[in-house]
């Protein structure tokens, strides 16, 4: 006797083929999504990979005693005031004595970064005994030299179509042949602030500004969002007002972020006269934007707690407040934390609201408090992407990778916190 449950009828064969096609479509969609993601991250990583290294130009610099310490006092204050720019330029002219003319000399001096004189000053202050001798000092190369050495400028293009001209190419080739051009790890990108010069620009000040801004955002949005969710879900009576509040919270979650920036500009800056371009105002604006997400996620986490938990606590004589805060809220906490960190990760990548409150300013110094002027990492990326300097493309891509790593770390933290506080019931 044939089993009717295992018999392959034409209708069943058709259904199984349709199911296999559906699974194949799903796998294909996931593969395409992963492929596009890998393509995007890969292209950004390739563009920003050059930031790992920095080109250095080693010069034999004559530390002329008559310029640095003519009175031979050894006073660091006097040594600091010496004309180190002329010393660096003299070393370059000695390398290429046949270079004449103002324009050609300007190109020659442009082989090193404008910060070269500061590097020589720092070297002399650290080694005052070398005054009067000739020292080999590695100096940061200019962005054009750095870009050319890294192969980002095609030397085969006509001279009119590239920034590095033929005479500069000849100088660079000679310096490479002498071994005076080297590459070192670019730790300054992670430890220094912004600069008008691409070879000197770093992200540390922007990263510190983002951390301070997110700290303010978390301290404001997490307790307010969680308490609002607990009240609305556990204590508020169902009425027209509660329905209106719920609809408005859901609508606020879909409001464009620039609207919150306009609100911060109108209220926090123009009405309360809070300091512009500070992590305090930035965190307050991002907290307004993050609150709806936290409230919605927290309410969903509270609803996911089985009603039997509440009934058991109430049956044992606990009050409604004790039931909520001793039993329901701890069980819902993993979901609340996950929603909070997801909202914070979204806030980390926002640029528009921060632009509206003035965090687009050029900030070099690292902020040490929430009321000092600062910028944020997404804003820094926006500024570099808008810069006409070709070398900033590399910095922009590297900053995007740092931002993605920051986001991944935050999402991993959400997973770890969820596992830590998760309770079985």
Q: Could you describe the 3D structure shown?
A:
With 425 residues, the protein is mainly alpha-helical. The protein has 2 domains: 50-186, no CATH class; 204-421, MetI-like (MetI-like fold). The chain is 63% helix and 5% strand. The chain is built from 18 helices and 3 strands. The chain has helices spanning 10-48, 65-68, 76-80, 84-95, 102-109, 116-126, 143-149, 166-177, 188-191, 204-235, 240-252, 257-269, 279-303, 307-315, 320-348, 352-356, 377-385, 391-421; strands spanning 53-62, 134-140, 181-185. It has a 3-stranded antiparallel β-sheet with strand order 2-1-3. The radius of gyration is 31 Å and the shape is elongated. The two termini are 47 Å apart. The mean pLDDT is 87.
The biggest sheet, with number of strands, parallel, antiparallel or mixed sense and barrel status, is: 3 strands, antiparallel
Strand content: 5-15%
The CATH architecture category of the largest domain equals Orthogonal Bundle
Highest-level CATH class of the largest domain? Mainly Alpha
Secondary structural class: mainly alpha
C-alpha geometry = elongated
Structure summary, number of beta strands: 3
What name goes with the CATH superfamily of the largest domain? MetI-like
Fraction of residues in helices? 55-70%
Total of helices: 18
Describe the strand arrangement of the main beta sheet, using strand numbers: 2-1-3
What integer value in Å does the Rg equal? Answer: 31 Å
Q: Low-confidence stretches at least 5 residues in length (pLDDT < 50)? A: none
Please write the string of helix (H) and strand (E) elements. Answer: HEHHHHHEHHEHHHHHHHHHH
Our count of domains comes out at: 2
CATH topology of the largest domain: MetI-like fold
Q: State mean pLDDT (0 to 100 scale).
A: 87
Q: How far is the N terminus from the C terminus? A: 47 Å
Give the oligomeric state of the chains in this entry, treating copies of one chain as homo and distinct chains as hetero.
single chain
């Amino acid at each position: 006797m044939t089993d009717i449950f295992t018999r392959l009828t034409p209708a069943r064969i058709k259904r199984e083929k349709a199911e296999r096609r559906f699974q194949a479509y799903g796998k294909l969609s996931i593969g395409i999504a992963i492929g596009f993601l890998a393509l995007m991250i890969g292209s950004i990583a390739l563009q920003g990979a050059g930031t790992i290294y920095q080109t250095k130009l080693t010069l034999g610099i004559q530390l002329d005693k008559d310029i640095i310490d003519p009175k031979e006092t050894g006073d660091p204050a006097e040594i600091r005031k010496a004309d180190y720019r002329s010393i660096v330029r003299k070393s370059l002219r000695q390398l290429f004595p046949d270079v004449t003319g103002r324009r050609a000399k300007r190109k020659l001096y442009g082989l090193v970064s404008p910060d070269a004189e500061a590097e020589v000053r720092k070297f002399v202050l650290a080694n005052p005994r070398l005054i009067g001798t000739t020292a080999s000092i590695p100096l940061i190369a200019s962005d054009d030299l750095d870009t050319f050495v890294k192969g980002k400028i095609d030397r085969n293009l006509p001279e009119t179509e590239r920034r590095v001209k033929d005479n500069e190419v000849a100088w660079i080739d000679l310096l490479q042949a002498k071994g005076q051009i080297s590459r070192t790890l670019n730790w300054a990108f992670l430890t220094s602030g912004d600069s008008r010069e691409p070879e000197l620009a770093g992200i540390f000040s922007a990263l510190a500004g983002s951390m301070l801004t997110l700290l303010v955002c978390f301290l404001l949005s997490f307790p307010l969002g969680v308490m609002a969710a607990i009240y609305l879900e556990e204590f508020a009576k169902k009425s027209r007002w509660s329905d209106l509040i719920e609809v408005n919270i859901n609508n606020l979650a879909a409001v464009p972020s620039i609207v919150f920036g306009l609100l911060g500009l109108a209220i926090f800056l123009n009405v309360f006269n809070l300091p512009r371009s500070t992590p305090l105002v930035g965190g307050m604006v991002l907290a307004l934007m993050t609150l709806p997400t936290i409230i919605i996620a927290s309410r969903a986490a509270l609803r996911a707690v089985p009603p039997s938990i509440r009934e058991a606590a109430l049956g044992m004589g606990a009050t409604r407040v004790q039931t909520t805060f001793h039993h329901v809220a701890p069980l819902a906490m993993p979901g609340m934390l996950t929603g909070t960190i997801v909202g914070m990760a979204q806030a980390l990548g926002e640029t528009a609201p921060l632009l509206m409150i003035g965090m687009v300013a050029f900030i070099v110094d690292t902020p040490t408090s929430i009321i000092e002027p600062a910028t944020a990492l997404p804003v820094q990326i926006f500024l570099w992407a808008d810069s006409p300097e070709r070398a900033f493309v590399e910095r922009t891509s590297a900053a995007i990778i740092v931002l993605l790593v920051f986001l991944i770390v935050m999402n991993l933290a959400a997973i770890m916190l969820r596992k830590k506080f998760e309770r079985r019931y």
